[in-house]
């Protein structure tokens, strides 16, 4: 049964009581709004599908993000980058809103504003994170709020990058890495070009997983969740032999993703190279594997690509080279 009480000139409080259900109460500006809300609650209770929205109506998006950062993010491989992304979202005006009141139109407005400042892929990652926060809150924390990210269109991904090293760029890059204050930058960049490993995989390398005699490096924990063993070129072996070695422990002790990212950006700037990201080194290394004559299955074994179609964007072979093969 619903009751209504006037609380001042512009407030009406509606209360819904039903046996076996918790008391539901909410305040509106008009009696008509209060009655509409109460009828909807009573219908849900009668059908046996009612779930309390009280927590969703008293919890802000900021509080959800902070709990997600504390409980969910630390369990992910990309915890560091997701932490930065979530903290940026926490600073948004939208984060001060109660989650029950956030609608698809609010998320769409956020999307469109972000698209004026950053790439579609960045905006898409923001939205995927927001959507997962809402899903975890609903499924695992008992906060029954609708996921508004489901109501909007996600931006299309950027065109895949195909940046390769141009003539003269590699020696300039390596020379700039030699001058870096971070002593690990040069060997990490060299290994990236020789092994096609991701930055995180390189940073997590451990001596007990490397066999220089067999020329292999085992990666027990990769992005796709499957372990793989990477063959090492003679150059990669030589790079590893120059490093301080122990029987166990990290190959690059004390190194963080953020430290290498910053050192790399500075090195690229010193080298006078434009638009060359660290991940482009993986693209370069993968393309070189094809140029050496390895087939797609062999390359996939080295790089760890599960979907062979993903390797198509790494095979930007020069037309003149293909013409020579045709005779």
Provide the CATH topology of the largest domain.
hpI Integrase, Chain A
- The strands making up the biggest β-sheet line up spatially as 1-2-3
Intertermini distance:
87 Å
- What does the main sheet amount to? 3 strands, antiparallel
Shape: elongated
Unreliable runs: none
The structural class is mainly alpha
CATH class of the largest domain: Mainly Alpha
Share of helix among residues?
40-55%
CATH architectural category of the largest domain: Orthogonal Bundle
Number of discrete helical segments = 14
Order of helices and strands: EEEHHHHHHHHHEEEHHHHH
Q: CATH homologous superfamily of the largest domain, by name?
A: Intergrase catalytic core
Number of strands: 6
Summarize the structure in words.
- With 327 residues, the chain is mostly helical.
- The protein has 3 domains: 2-50; 58-151, Tyrosine recombinase, N-terminal domain (DNA polymerase, domain 1), CATH 1.10.150; 169-326, Orthogonal Bundle (hpI Integrase, Chain A), CATH 1.10.443.
- Helices cover 47% and strands 8% of the residues.
- The chain contains 14 helices and 6 strands.
- It has helices at residues 31-47, 54-58, 61-71, 79-90, 104-115, 120-139, 169-178, 185-195, 199-203, 234-241, 257-270, 278-291, 296-303, 319-326; strands spanning 2-6, 12-16, 24-28, 210-211, 216-219, 228-231.
- Strand 4 (210-211) and strand 5 form a beta hairpin.
- Helix 3 packs antiparallel against helix 4.
- The longest helix is centred in the middle third of the chain and has 20 residues, at 120-139.
- The termini are far apart.
């Amino acid at each position: 049964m619903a009751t209504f009480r006037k609380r001042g000139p512009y407030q009406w409080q509606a209360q819904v009581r039903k046996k076996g259900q918790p008391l539901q109460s909410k305040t509106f500006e008009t009696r008509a709004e209060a009655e509409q809300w109460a009828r909807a609650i009573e219908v849900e209770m009668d059908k046996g599908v009612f779930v309390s929205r009280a927590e969703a109506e008293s919890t802000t998006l900021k509080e959800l993000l902070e709990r997600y950062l504390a409980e969910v993010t630390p369990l992910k491989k990309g915890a560091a980058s997701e932490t930065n992304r979530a903290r940026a979202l926490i600073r948004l005006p939208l984060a001060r809103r109660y989650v029950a009141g956030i609608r698809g139109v609010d998320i769409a407005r956020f999307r469109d504003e972000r698209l004026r400042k950053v790439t579609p892929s960045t905006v898409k990652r923001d939205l995927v994170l927001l959507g997962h926060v809402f899903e975890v809150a609903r499924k695992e924390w008992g906060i029954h709020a609708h996921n508004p990210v489901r109501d909007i269109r996600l931006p299309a991904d950027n065109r895949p990058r195909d940046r390769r090293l141009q003539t003269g760029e590699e020696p300039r890059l390596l020379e700039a890495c030699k001058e870096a204050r971070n002593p690990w930058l040069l060997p990490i960049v060299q290994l990236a070009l020789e092994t096609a490993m991701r930055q995180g995989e390189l940073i997590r390398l451990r001596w007990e997983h490397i066999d220089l005699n067999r020329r292999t490096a085992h990666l027990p924990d990769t992005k796709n969740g499957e372990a793989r063993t990477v063959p090492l070129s003679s150059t990669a072996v030589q790079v590893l032999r120059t490093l301080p070695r122990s029987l166990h422990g990290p190959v690059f002790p004390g190194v963080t993703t953020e430290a290498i990212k910053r050192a790399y950006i500075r090195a690229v700037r010193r080298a006078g190279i434009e638009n060359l990201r660290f991940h482009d080194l993986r693209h370069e290394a993968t393309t070189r594997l094809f140029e050496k004559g390895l087939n797609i299955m062999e390359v996939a074994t080295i790089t760890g690509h599960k979907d062979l179609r993903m390797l198509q964007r790494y095979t930007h072979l020069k037309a003149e080279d293909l013409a020579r093969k045709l005779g």
